[in-house]
Amino acid sequence: MLKAAAELVRAFGTHDSDGYFACFSSDATFIFHSTPQALGSREAYQALWREWEADGFQVLGCRSSDGRALVHGEVAAFTHRVETHLRVAGEEHQLQERETIVFRREGGHWLAFHEHLSGVPAG
To answer: Chain centroid to CA 40: how far?
Structure first.
């Protein structure tokens, strides 16, 4: 499962959209502190990602730290701190966030089926 998490972070951090979305099951759900609504499928997130890209969104880098994995049979949760370097509409941003990604084993592979991203509280 840790290899699957590392691949997901690598693909996101290099703006490898195809590789990133391949890490998720089609029925994956997403909760991001930066969006007003939860996203109920990989397709919904991909559509939002394309809108972001049309507005100049690009991931310039991503660093994962303090990673922890909890595996329970065919399901696993990966938590970590994420430092992301983005470009949005020509402006660069550094984000500090926490993330939980829940994986399940499908056909011998670990695929993410839920992602929850939150900001890091001040202090």
So the answer is: 14
CATH numbers and ranges of domains, the chain: 2-119 (3.10.450.50)
pTM: 0.94
Q: Are 44 and 28 in contact (CB under 8 A)?
A: no
By the 8 A CB rule, do 38 and 29 touch? yes
pLDDT tens-digit profile of 73-101? 999 999 999 999 999 999 999 999 999 99
Q: How many other CB atoms sit within 10 Å of the CB of residue 111?
A: 19
- Tokens standing for residue 3: 């290899």
Q: How far apart are CA 107 and CA 27, in angstroms?
A: 15
